[in-house]
Design goal:
With about 325 residues, the protein is α/β, with parallel strands linked by helices. The chain contains nine helices and 14 strands. Helices cover about 35% and strands about 20% of the residues.
């Protein structure tokens, strides 16, 4: 039996494939709590009388979604995304005066922690019997920067972090965010950097228990995940500025596919990137232009997200101005 959509009072989607996806998805845990947090965050950071960057809210999605193979999930399909793009971009949006809803995959890279070693607790702290815990001298600068900048964002109430794991959680949360950000109009932005699964096992056709290995080769049919990009644009938050990402491993088809996504889903920008060079260069595809954005190699610690977010903030400003005079 199909599970009821837990956010039915907000439900909007006229495409039957999308409706079917949400109707059959397992209900999002803590939906009421997530909704309350979002409402409180939007109320704090957006006022209809305000203008300027301080009144803008961006939803940054980050990391990859999983596809469970069993309801009591032992195995799942995953993807490579580290969440670095989303975490770095969040930092630059915050520095540009935006409030950020950081919708991220549990366990992936976090804003302000990018420069810390993977095992920061054990590698950055020292403890000699009887003395206090101390930050190792060689890690002091990077730890101070991470803590100060993170505390500033948290104290200012401009960063809301919401974790997801599965494709079901991600799309339900994206829907919730989009429907609630609708009232922010053109000052809202979607920066959809999460690597979203293209195929999934529908909940109702998924086995409850661990798939047994004794039954020979695994033969499973995966359904296509319906594309939610156009529904964000046309139904959930039609006035928001929308940026999606296109990832390919073959550069010959990258720009063509990015151009197709721009038109098909009505995106304002598509950021095209190749797997192996994604930290060096991205190409921003617009209706009448393609702009290459590169990391400034001569600057220590420079990353491609810095010039990318500058460009996006400029274009978002133009979009807000054009929307208010329309
Ligand atoms: C991206 O293309 C991101 O830039 C990366 C970032 C996932 C490559 P990392 O997390 O990598 O820093 O390691 N994200 C979107 C990929 C995606 O799933 N796009 C869909 C598609 O290509 C459209 S929504 O069809």
């Amino acid at each position: 039996m199909a599970a009821a959509n837990h956010i039915e009072e907000l439900y909007v989607a006229s495409d039957p494939k999308i409706k079917e996806f949400f109707d059959s998805a397992p209900p999002l845990q803590d939906a009421a709590d997530i909704k309350a947090k979002l409402n409180e965050f939007i109320q704090r950071n957006f006022s209809t009388s305000g203008d300027g960057k301080a009144n803008r809210i961006v939803c940054v999605t980050s990391g990859g979604t999983t596809v469970p193979l069993e309801k009591r999930c032992v195995r799942y399909i995953d993807n490579f995304s580290s969440g670095h793009r989303g975490a770095a971009s969040t930092e630059y949006f915050l520095k540009s005066g935006y409030s950020v809803i950081f919708l991220y995959r549990r366990g992936t890279c976090q804003p302000f922690c990018r420069d810390l070693p993977e095992n920061a607790l054990l590698e950055c702290l020292t403890y000699n019997n009887g003395s206090n815990l101390q930050v190792d001298q060689k890690s002091a600068d990077v730890v101070k920067r991470a803590i100060t900048e993170h505390q500033a964002a948290v104290a200012g109430g401009s960063l809301l972090k919401l974790p997801f794991t599965t494709i079901f959680e991600y799309l339900q949360m994206l829907q919730l965010v989009a429907l609630l950000l609708r009232r922010v109009g053109p000052s809202a932005m979607f920066y959809l950097a999460a690597a979203v699964s293209d195929f999934y096992v529908p909940w109702e056709s998924m086995t409850m228990h661990k798939i047994q290995s004794g039954s020979g080769p695994l033969d499973m049919q995966l359904a296509q995940v319906p594309k939610m990009l156009s529904v964000v644009r046309t139904e959930w938050a039609p006035l928001a500025f929308c940026i999606s990402f296109k990832l390919e491993t073959d550069k010959d088809i990258l720009l063509e596919k990015a151009g197709m996504a721009l038109k098909k889903y009505g995106m304002h920008m598509v950021v095209a990137n190749e797997l192996l060079t994604r930290k060096e260069e991205v190409i921003v595809v617009l209706l009448n232009d393609k702009i290459s954005v590169r990391r400034e190699k001569s600057e220590a610690g420079a990353d491609v997200e810095n010039p990318l977010i500058k460009l996006i903030v400029e274009r978002h400003s133009e979009y807000i101005t054009a929307s208010s005079s329309a």
